Amino acid sequence: MALSILIVTYRSAGHIRACLDSLRRQTLARHRFEIIVVDNSSTDATTAIIANEYPEVRLIRAAGNLGFTGGNNLAKRFARGRRLLLLNPDTIADPHALDELLRVDAERA
User: Per residue in 22-80, pLDDT tens?
Assistant: First the structure.
């Protein structure tokens, strides 16, 4: 797997759909990346939205609020990609963003 996308959420129900929808629209083949979301014990509908609408996303429910760093460290333990991309839950990625990211990375190697 080329890329693991790590997203840490906390009460992000108002943003997470747009973020995950933008990742669904990527031109990079879906088998080349994975999405891992760590939820920091949200009290809103964040986890329900992810669990019910995005079966391709690996959802990890943290027992408490680990913060941004702690959430990413937890997500990293499950990541299988050669590269990691940390995104905020309010990110909306251009459809070519992941292709471009890996293209530039390959040119630098």
Answer: 999 999 999 999 999 999 999 999 999 999 999 999 999 999 999 999 999 999 999 99
Burial 61-95 (b: 16+ CB within 10 A, else e): ebeeebeeeebbebbeeebebeeebebebebebee
What is residue 29's DSSP assignment?
-
Spatial separation of the C-alpha atoms in residues 51 and 75, rounded to whole Å = 16
Backbone phi, psi, residue 60, to 5°: -115, 120
Torsion of CA 93, 94, 100, 101, to 10 degrees: -10
The CA distance from 107 to 30, in Å, is 21
Interatomic CA distance for residues 107 and 63, integer angstroms: 40
Q: What is the pTM of this model?
A: 0.96
